[in-house]
């Protein structure tokens, strides 16, 4: 890298989180000849999934293959890849603006800007078999996985306020959809909509997922009845991994998600956020695009800052007496 910073011991940007959003932000910045480091704990949200979909030219690729390819590309541009969990990010004083990143068990790292791409955590219902089948035949995203189970008997667990809407969305992939009411009884209006779309409602409490020969076979109710299903969808409670952002004072909206503009700027200058940490609906391809958009805007801010500092140095140099020069 040839771009000197105000403090050559500091990075221009440190990206926290090496999912698609973080890696793509780092890639664009590294290609902009910025000094970049990526710190990642190695716990991607989509790790249980064997394949990802909806990403042009990468449809069906294993998520870990995409991330491995991204890391290789980054290394080729001189970006530093650091394995570790970041415990804290401190905002440095105005006399030395920037940020200090503190990875657990490693040395502190300084940067002019920080991109947080730490994703979110899926909280699943406490039903036997759910966590064990997560990412195989216990699924969430219709756009990611419904095509692979099209025309099969599908169930949806009523464990979240969004479960009925989830069921109605899934109906276009299969004619055989069952909504398990469980703890989310549909309203009269919702029952009418489900009936109109040919969705059967199964009353009662779900006891467990029935698995035989490492395949989902059905859903068992507490009364003992088993409803055969080949795949089951669940709407998890999505909790953003935003402790680093809130620790720096980034503002949140009324729903509890950190606020950014379209480029990923938070309310704290120099702090950016991309991907699922700010948007639970972001697919892999969406997160990658968010990372690129943030990198474009972030690099422009660095350029403007570099120009301002260069002008200040130029004025100081040209203001000196001729002999001193």
Automatic annotation (TrEMBL):
Q: Which domain of life is it from?
A: Bacteria
| Record domain FAD/NAD(P)-binding: where | 11-291
List the catalysed reactions. [thioredoxin]-dithiol + NADP(+) = [thioredoxin]-disulfide + NADPH + H(+)
Q: Which Pfam families match?
A: Pyr_redox_2 (PF07992)
Q: Which Gene3D superfamilies match?
A: FAD/NAD(P)-binding domain
What's the protein here called?
NAD(P)/FAD-dependent oxidoreductase
Which classification does the entry list for the species? Answer: Bacteria, Bacillati, Actinomycetota, Actinomycetes, Kitasatosporales
Matching entries from InterPro entries are given as: FAD/NAD-bd_sf, FAD/NAD-binding_dom, Ferredoxin-NADP_redctase_2
Keywords carried by this UniProt record: Flavoprotein, Oxidoreductase
Keyword Oxidoreductase assigned? yes
Tell me if Flavoprotein is a UniProt keyword of this record.
yes
């Amino acid at each position: 890298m040839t771009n000197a910073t105000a403090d050559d011991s500091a990075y221009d940007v440190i990206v926290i989180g090496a999912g698609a959003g973080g890696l793509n932000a780092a890639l664009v910045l590294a290609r902009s000849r910025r000094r970049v480091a990526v710190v990642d704990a190695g716990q991607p949200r989509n790790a249980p999934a064997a394949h990802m979909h909806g990403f042009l030219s990468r449809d069906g690729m294993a998520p870990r293959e995409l991330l491995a390819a991204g890391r290789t590309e980054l290394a080729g541009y001189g970006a530093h890849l650091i394995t570790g969990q970041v415990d804290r990010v401190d905002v440095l004083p105005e006399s030395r603006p920037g940020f200090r990143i503190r990875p657990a068990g490693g040395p502190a790292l300084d940067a002019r800007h920080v991109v947080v791409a730490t994703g979110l955590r899926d909280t699943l219902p406490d039903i036997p078999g759910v966590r064990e089948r997560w990412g195989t035949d216990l699924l969430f995203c219709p756009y990611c996985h419904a095509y692979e189970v099209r025309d099969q008997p599908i169930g949806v667990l009523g464990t979240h306020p969004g479960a009925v809407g989830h069921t109605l969305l899934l109906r276009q992939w299969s004619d055989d959809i069952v909504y398990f009411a469980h703890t989310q009884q549909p309203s009269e209006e919702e029952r009418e909509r489900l009936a109109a779309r040919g969705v059967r409602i199964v009353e009662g409490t779900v006891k467990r997922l029935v698995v035989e020969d490492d395949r989902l076979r059905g859903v068992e109710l507490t009364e003992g009845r088993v409803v055969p299903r080949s795949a089951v969808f669940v709407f998890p409670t999505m909790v953003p991994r935003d402790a680093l952002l809130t620790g720096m004072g980034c503002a949140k909206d009324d729903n509890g998600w950190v606020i950014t503009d379209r480029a990923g700027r938070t309310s704290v200058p120099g702090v950016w956020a991309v991907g699922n940490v700010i948007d639970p609906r972001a697919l892999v391809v969406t997160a990658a695009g968010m990372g690129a958009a943030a990198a474009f805007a972030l690099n422009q801010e660095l350029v403007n800052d570099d120009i301002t500092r260069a002008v200040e140095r130029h004025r100081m140099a040209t203001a000196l007496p001729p002999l001193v020069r």
